[in-house]
Amino acid sequence: MGWFDWLTRKRPSASPLPWQQARQALPILQGLSELEQQRLCELAQALLARKTLTRLGVALTPLQQAGLALQAALPILHLGLDWYAGFHEIIIIPEPVTRRESVQDEYGLVSEVTEEHAGESWQQGPLVLAWSELADDGGWDGYNLIIHELTHKLDMLGGEADGVPPMGPGMDMDEWRRVFQAAFDDLRERDERNEASIDPYAATHPAEFLAVVTELFFTDPHRLHSVYPAVYDQLARQGERMSA
Ligand SMILES: [Zn+2]
Fold it and tell me: Degrees (nearest 5) of the Cα angle 30, 145, 5?
């Protein structure tokens, strides 16, 4: 179910979007080879052909659409579009949704909090992304909302979002669990001392840990490699099969 399989099953029709220009506008694509960039473009076009892109009160230029699709294709560059089987629609909204929510603490006390949601991905549901939060994505700054939310989708492809996505060929799920649990525990300990080495949001849940380190993998790889080299190694191995 790799790249070549879907390419022969369905070749996406030529798109009028300015792919070349969009590629050049995204710094995080600089490390890709020419072949990888071509694959990424094909994947991005196929993604737009297969998934519904709904814009609610947001007008995207062709360049912005292409940039969005290219970044969305990045996590599955070497895995293939089948890995996005868990959703059919991407909904772009103008601003993060703010909502009152009831939260129960460890003692059973319920309090009302206001939560801001820049992005959401529910099991089998659409991906919801706030344009104001992702319009500037694509740089080497360690943050990328599109990659973050799509990582949750990949995680949920294996069932509950628990930080363990389905494993690609040659991957060892036990090893993945061991490596990620050790790093997650380390981050929680550091966070308690206010010495978190990466965004402490990653310490809130194993699924968030995976989403945050995947953002780093694509947008600040040196940092991830220096902080959690074994995690970096797992992510690299999960995504490198087709590059040979
Ligand atoms: Zn998240």
Answer: 65
Q: What is the CATH number of the domain that holds 220?
A: 1.10.472.150
Q: What is the pLDDT of residues 57-92, one digit of tens each?
A: 999 999 999 999 999 999 999 999 999 998 999 999
Predicted confidence (pLDDT) per residue in 174-221, tens digit: 999 999 999 999 999 999 999 999 999 999 999 999 999 999 999 999
The first and second tokens of residue 199, run together, are 């965004």
Q: For residue 44, give Cα distances in angstroms to 70, 105, 122, 126.
A: 5, 42, 22, 17
Domain range for residue 190? 3-243
Q: 10 C-alpha vs ligand 1 centroid, how far in Å?
A: 32
Domain count, the chain: 1
DSSP per residue, 179-212: HHHHHHHHHHHHHHTT--SS-GGGGG-HHHHHHH
Residue 52 CA to ligand 1 center (angstroms) comes to 22
Distance (Å) from CA 1 to ligand 1 centroid = 27
Element (H, E) at 117: strand 110-117
> For residue 119, how far is its CA from the centre of ligand 1 (angstroms)?
8
* Residue 109 CA to ligand 1 centre (angstroms): 24
Contacts for 180 with CB less than 8 Å, ≥ 6 apart: 163, 164, 206, 209, 210, 231, 234
Q: How far is CA 202 from CA 25, 154, 198, in A?
A: 28, 17, 8
